[in-house]
Design a protein that fits this description.
This protein is an alpha/beta fold. Helix content is 34%, strand content 24%. Bound molecules: cytidine-5'-triphosphate.
């Protein structure tokens, strides 16, 4: 499955209630469709004041419905027919008024009628609030939100920042790309629900002087994909990242570091409070013994300076040696003999699972193949995009946790 098709086969009922954020929903339809979903747009009368059904029909490639008296439905029951086909009902934007309606179970327009008539087990409801910050903060709105959450609705956002009214605060609707990620996450099985996962990712950078350093080609993509997949699976994720150019996956806590020592100092105090540690970072084995305070200059002799090196701490081995430590997963990037080197690493680092890959074939790329090596044997996760691989790895970790008692 390509990364673009993570919603293949899903049918989404996208409801728009009245709000300026309706313009973002046009982009959302495009993104959902590109991700492989089919989208049926339903609009309230108020939503039609902000964006036309023509736009939404063109983007979704389906006629928009907005009235419960729509005679195009042969049995005149759009609220039943459309909600029976859907895998998810997403209301974006959800106005304060519409959330109030949901909280009370009112059904005086097609969209609220559908929310009430959908089969609650098969078609979950997700709500992306969009409103002014005062409306958001109002006790009535907060009370209504609590109620719809208790009734099983998933709350997506809101975001924080500039608002259409010129004020700044909570209540903005999430951006279309953020909503897409949230929708993809909703469909993932919650294999790690309630667990805390710590991940190291990216390269480290070991300074030689203020302008130079030693680093490697690790892009951090695999570690970031695992962070996203683990969060999708319901985990609380902390990502300790070396210098990389990647956006933080939604809902993931990120700590940026530069050197191996900084990564060690960030990871070790957190490790014992986490259930799982996944070490994807390509940590430099050595660092210059002392970084020069000023740029090292050519001295005219033609002699290259010699740089004394010292070994970096092994983060994974140190975490694996903790008495109350997490379940540890190591990565082995090798250039040959993956099984032999991976198995040796499993023993040397004292970890229950090593994930092997052929280093030069993976650095910086969006796809890869993995080999899971543990005491039982080896299992290949075949070639795929890194997010799909990460989800498979998360499944592998979750299965192993079932058989692992916390020490
Ligand atoms: N690792 C770590 N701290 C280090 C070195 C490695 O946490 N100082 C972790 C990596 O994140 C990875 C695993 O250990 O999960 C394997 O790292 P690798 O560099 O491939 O192994 P090495 O122990 O350095 O062995 P070699 O250099 O012989 O391949």
């Amino acid at each position: 499955m390509s990364e673009l098709q993570h919603l293949a086969g899903k049918h989404i009922l996208l409801g728009l209630s009245g709000g300026i954020a309706c313009y973002k929903s046009a982009e959302l339809v495009r993104l959902l469709s590109k991700a492989g979903a089919t989208v049926q747009v339903v609009m309230t009368e108020a939503a039609e004041q902000f964006i036309t059904p023509v736009t939404m029909q063109a983007l979704s490639n389906r006629p928009v419905v907005s009235s419960q008296w729509d005679a195009r439905e042969p049995n005149n029951m759009a609220h039943i027919n459309l909600s029976r086909e859907a895998d998810l009902m997403l209301v974006a934007p959800a106005s304060a008024d519409f959330i109030a309606k949901l909280a009370q179970g009112r059904a005086d327009d097609l969209l609220s009628l559908m929310a009430l008539a959908r089969p609650i087990e098969r078609c979950p409801l997700a709500v992306a609030p969009a409103m002014n910050r005062e409306m958001w903060a109002h006790p009535a709105t907060q009370r209504n939100l609590e109620q719809i959450r208790a009734d099983g609705a998933f709350l997506l956002g809101p975001g924080n920042g500039d608002q259409a009214c010129g004020e700044v605060g909570d209540g903005r609707m999430l951006e279309a790309a953020e909503l897409l990620d949230e929708v993809i996450a909703l469909f993932q099985p919650k294999r790690l629900a309630g667990l805390k996962l710590l991940i190291s990712a990216g390269p480290t950078f070991e300074p030689i002087d203020p302008v130079r350093g030693i680093t490697n080609h690790s892009s951090g993509k695999m570690g970031f994909a695992i962070a996203r997949a683990a969060r999708e699976a319901g985990a609380e994720v902390t990502l300790v990242a070396g210098p990389v150019h990647l956006p933080t996956p939604r809902g993931v806590k990120r700590i940026d570091v530069q050197t191996a020592q900084q990564m060690f100092d960030a990871v070790l105090p957190l490790a014992a409070s986490h259930r799982v540690f996944v070490a994807t970072a390509a940590v430099a084995d050595w660092r210059p013994a002392a970084a020069a305070d000023h740029k090292i200059k050519k001295d005219g002799s033609g002699q290259a300076p010699s740089i004394a090196m010292t070994e970096n701490p092994d983060i994974l081995a140190a975490v694996a040696a903790l008495p109350q430590g997490p379940y540890c997963v190591g990565f082995a990037a090798e250039s040959q003999d993956l099984v032999t080197h991976g198995r040796a690493k499993l023993i040397r680092k004292g970890v229950p699972l090593i994930v092997g890959n052929i280093g030069p074939a993976t650095f910086g790329r969006d796809d890869n193949a993995l080999l899971l090596i543990d005491a039982e044997g080896e299992r290949e996760i075949p070639h795929n995009d890194k997010l799909t691989l990460a989800r498979e790895l998360v499944r592998g970790i979750a299965e192993r946790l079932l058989h692992t008692q916390r020490p």
